[in-house]
Amino acid sequence: DAGVIQSPRHEVTEMGQEVTLRCKPISGHNSLFWYRQTMMRGLELLIYFNNNVPIDDSGMPEDRFSAKMPNASFSTLKIQPSEPRDSAVYFCASSFIGGNTEAFFGQGTRLTVV
Amino acid sequence: DQQVKQNSPSLSVQEGRISILNCDYTNSMFDYFLWYKKYPAEGPTFLISISSIKDKNEDGRFTVFLNKSAKHLSLHIVPSQPGDSAVYFCAAPLSNFGNEKLTFGTGTRLTIIP
Question: What confidence tier does A73 reach under pLDDT thresholds 50, 70, 90?
Fold first, then answer.
């Protein structure tokens, strides 16, 4: 397996534009997580899915953020409209929940909103 | 509300010496802990874990110690090597109705000095 695949690796957009980040989890994993990394808060969990169902979105900062997982092999994180303070690295991770297994992370998407 | 805390944002250690990274947690429900390592422009990768039924887990140069009464864990790297320079995150999964979400600390940047 190629691991967790995120696209794009880098995204630069203007304030007010819609941004969509994409993630392909590891095949066979049943949980998917979206994290945001900032200097102040480290790795902050935004939302996680189990069996394609959103379980906890309490970390989503505002209504401007939304996430979907239409099937077991694809998820999106959308920001609309984007703001400069959304600039961060966004990571997707997947795991198989059912035992003490670790989450595997993608390489991240570095988002810059100007 | 940070349930997993890493109070040292950075640490510098001479090559060959021992590196000790610390992590404190507040939630007594945590029963499993993980350490992740992150290089620049890459996603975090799993390093080592420990279950709460143990107080020590060793894997090569890496050892994690758990002190449940103090709600404290530490990662020891000995001997430290230049390739160990990275950001280290401690994490814990919080189980909720059979689902788990990983909560991370803010990370400690370890620099190994040749």
Answer: very high
